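Worked example 2:
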Amino acid sequence: MSEKLRIIGLEEHVVLPVLLDAWKRAGVQPHRYGDDHPVTRRLSDVGDRRLADMDDQGVDVAVLSLASPGVQNLAAADAVSVARAANDALAELVAAHPLRFQAFACIPTSAPEAAAAELERAITRLGFRGAMLYGRTGDKLADAAEFDDLYATAERLRVPLHFHPQAPVRAVHEAYYSGLPDGVGPMLATAGLGWYYDLGVQYLRMIFSGVFDRHPGLQVIAGHWGEVVLFYLDHVGVMQGMAGLRRPLADYFRQNFWVAGSGTVSERYLRWTAEVVGTGRMLYSTDYPYTFGTRPGGFPYLDTSGGVARSFLENAPFTDEEKVAIGSGNWERLTGHLAADHGRHR
């Protein structure tokens, strides 16, 4: 390419003190790393180390979001107050490095009316580009009727909702992932496979239950190359008549979903995603810091350090125009109006 490719990463996680305190009070176990683990340290770093790591990866802008499960496993009262405090803190981080950081809002979905209000505040007053959600809220799945106001607000504001997985419920974990050796079960239940099935099924539930028919303008960002679903659309599509869908199943993914790879640098998945939804519906993400540096076992498809985040896209089997679109152009097309609106109303 004659000009440097601009890369905006959309799944770049942070953990803030207010969130850690809330998780501790509620007994939430968000990740399995020790306090002194490099991943844990990087989650909490929002300054020089993170900027240096972005430079190392080749990422120009990081859209910051809270690590899973955000505030969605907190009681309603705590979720509302922690979400507001976390969003205020994220806004301060963006203000400190406006050319390098953007942010997804944290949303207290356990309090649905407050959730819609906090999304509106984060977009119109704090200048965020959308929100990060985490599938389930307690035992409520993403298609639950009480989230309709939140989805209606996102549709009205024209903001995307990026969904991120969380671990399957205990009964599923025990039924499918228990009894395996040497920690294989917990890993298989989460980053190995379980996360993606858990969220992918919720995407299908949202479609089949009519969320996108009621909110045809709602835009959802799916990470991890579509959370398994894209690979089985032909199978699942036979049920569209049973569900009374207004459109073919694949059309929902081509009109309501945007797909990113979450740091899985697999050209096979990249090509498949482009075939299914098209490069005009693809975004970029690195899943920082979980894919930064050598992963357990040295698995190369989950390491974006050493310039790999950039070289993976630069070497992709697409035209220069398509690479620009995936790296940043599609994101600006999806959310650029929000920056302009915020600038006019500041």
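The two ends are 37 Å apart (CA to CA). The beta strands are 8-14, 61-66, 101-103, 105-106, 131-133, 161-163, 220-222, 257-259.
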